[in-house]
Design brief:
Structural class: alpha+beta
Largest sheet: 4 strands, mixed
CATH superfamily of the domain at 360-427: Homeodomain-like
Strand order of the largest sheet: 3-2-5-6
Helix content: 40-55%
CATH architecture of the domain at 360-427: Orthogonal Bundle
Distance between the termini: 76 Å
Number of strands: 8
CATH topology of the domain at 360-427: Arc Repressor Mutant, subunit A
CATH class of the domain at 360-427: Mainly Alpha
Order of helices and strands: HHHEHHHHHHHHHHEEHEHHHHEEEEHHHH
Strand content: 5-15%
Shape: globular
């Protein structure tokens, strides 16, 4: 049997339960509860536990038979999943070489919730062990995928990518007057351009019609969240509690379980009952699999971030999805799904699980630190500046160099903006 035939056979072996497992793995606690509530509305075999005693399968039987099967179905998922999943699928199906696919996946895994690249190209090159030119070439490819523009470094680049090259005035506004555009200093922009009022208005209309982020549906929700994991330390020992309240609320109906065993139940009735019992059991199996996978991931994250979570150091250690994937022998896609939309209640407060994964920066001395160390240094430099003569980004670059960081000006600008630190013009005292 050739490889193509084997692949077809593997695709056919993927079950609805496996697809359900993949989808639920990335859901938050609140989303899991909604899933259960929806199921209980349409499935009479699934009921709330306070109505009768639970009778079901042994908990030891929950989940997939083995990890290999789970990794297999992840690589063959349909394309109606999240934006990130769709991007990975497009990469896998592209004709670029395997190394470029690895680089492209790294790029996608390092975009923020809006689709902008949240890591330095140098860091990605280091992680994949390639030169910076290979990363730049692959990044250009990623930007052509759907949605177009994922991987752009910032809003300015993303707008420039969307504007037709024929729209010269619009390109000039974004390319040469971007800060003024953001500040709505349209009169100043107009004075700096050689165009008519009509051309200027047309250009603004063109710009306003464009998207302001490649990914819209992954925006962070500004609302109180229920943690999926509770992490506590007692007597120098850490305890991991998976918030499984959703599992404790639902069960399979005893009435249905007894009916399927009753000789008096007709074949048609048994078929109906079996269908609903299996559907309910698959859902409960999947939720437990999610909990077990989450526990494994958090346990390994804790091993790396122990000092940070116990407040022995200010910032988390550098940590990549691949690090955890190797530790627990899981596909990186499953780690990405597990981390997504999850919150963890820690002694430091409630944190997104993703926030404990940070890029590494290699200082001039060779010391490896996290991005937060760089951000803190930038913040300290700005706080110490003369407010009558604030520092430009280039001047901050020079001071960072004196602090053992070799960072480009655009990188300083990106991290400054991410910390809501105003530009030099707006920081200057009036």
């Amino acid at each position: 049997m050739n490889k193509f035939s084997t692949k077809i056979r593997q695709k056919q072996s993927i079950t609805p339960k496996q697809i359900l497992q993949s989808r639920l793995l990335e859901l938050s606690l609140d989303e899991i509860e909604k899933e259960l509530e929806n199921e209980i509305q349409k499935n009479p075999a699934l009921i709330e536990k306070n109505t009768e005693e639970f009778v079901g399968k042994d908990n030891e039987n929950y989940g997939l038979d083995n990890q290999a099967n789970y990794d297999l179905f992840l690589s063959n998922l349909p394309e109606d999943k999240s934006t990130i999943d769709n991007l990975i699928s497009q990469i896998d199906q592209s004709e670029i070489d395997d190394k470029s696919k690895e680089i492209a996946q790294q790029i996608v895994f390092n975009v923020d919730n809006s689709g902008f690249l949240d890591s330095e190209l140098e860091l990605i090159a280091d992680n994949v062990d390639v030169n910076i030119q290979e990363v730049e070439n692959t990044l250009a490819f990623v930007k052509t995928l759907n949605p177009k523009g994922v991987g752009c470094s910032n809003l300015q680049e993303y707008l420039m990518l969307q504007i037709d090259q024929k729209e010269k005035t619009a390109l000039d506004i974004i390319g040469s007057h971007f800060d003024q555009f953001l500040n709505q200093e349209f009169l100043d922009i107009k004075l700096g351009l050689s165009c008519s009022d009509a051309e200027f208005e047309h250009a603004l209309t063109i710009i306003s019609s464009k998207k302001f982020s490649p990914i819209i549906d992954l925006s962070e929700k500004n609302q109180q969240v229920n943690p999926d994991v509770i992490l506590r330390m007692k007597n120098d020992e850490w305890f991991i509690l998976i918030n499984d309240r959703h599992l404790s609320k639902f069960k399979i109906s005893n009435e249905y379980l007894n009916a399927v065993m009753d000789q008096k139940t007709s074949k048609e009735e048994k078929s109906f009952i079996d269908k609903h019992i299996n559907s309910a059991q698959d859902l409960l199996d999947t939720i437990l699999f999610r909990s077990n996978t989450l526990r494994k991931v958090v346990s390994e994250v804790l091993n790396i971030q122990r000092d940070y979570l116990s407040e022995k150091q200010k910032h988390p250690n550098p940590l990549k999805l691949e690090d955890i994937a190797k530790k627990i022998d899981m596909d990186i896609s499953s780690i990405s799904r597990t981390v997504k939309n999850k919150y963890i209640d820690t002694p430091l407060g409630t944190l997104s699980l993703k926030s404990l994964f940070t890029s590494k920066i290699v200082k001039k001395s060779g010391k490896v630190v996290g991005v937060e160390d760089l951000k803190t240094t930038i913040r300290n430099i700005v706080e110490a500046e003369d407010k009558n003569q604030p520092l430009s980004d280039l001047e901050i670059v020079k001071l960072l160099d004196a602090n053992d960081f070799t960072i480009a000006r655009r990188t300083v600008a990106k991290y400054r903006e991410s910390m809501n630190i105003l530009n030099i013009k707006k920081r200057k005292l009036k």
